[in-house]
Amino acid sequence: MDTLELKNHIIRNIESLNNEDFEKVVQQLFEVLKLGNIYKLSVEENEAINQALNLMEAEELMYSHDEVMGDVKDKYPNLDFNPMNH
């Protein structure tokens, strides 16, 4: 899709939202657009990352990049893993 098609696609999707969902999307968009805005992990995200790091350090959980990507591609065959395609 070229830029114009992407903009039109976004507009069509926004127009189909109810007011509550629209307000959520607008808030998220403003957060993304803030220059210098650093994403802050939630408590749950921090806990999950720390748990995974602890398991890695204990060598209970060790997968190569290729193993992870293979599993993910098997589970989500329609997911585009190359952001340059967009």
How does this structure look, described?
The protein contains four helices and no strands. By secondary structure, it is mostly helical. The longest helix has 15 residues, at 19-33. The radius of gyration is 18 Å and the shape is extended. It has two domains: 1-37, no CATH class; 40-86, no CATH class. The model has no long low-confidence stretch (mean pLDDT 83).
Mean pLDDT: 83
Strand content: under 5%
Number of strands: 0
Number of helices: 4
Ranges where pLDDT stays below 50 over 5 or more residues in a row are none
Cα end-to-end separation: 7 Å
Q: Helices and strands, in N-to-C order? A: HHHH
Bin the helical content.
55-70%
Assign the structural class, choosing from mainly alpha, mainly beta, alpha/beta, alpha+beta, or little secondary structure: mainly alpha
Number of domains: 2
Shape: extended
Radius of gyration: 18 Å
Largest sheet: none
Write the layout of secondary structure elements.
Layout: H1 3-15, H2 19-33, H3 43-57, H4 65-75
Structural features:
86 residues; mainly alpha; 2 domains; 63% helix; 0% strand; extended
Q: What's this, in brief?
A:
By secondary structure, this protein is mainly alpha-helical. It has helices at about 5-15, 20-35, 45-55, 65-75.
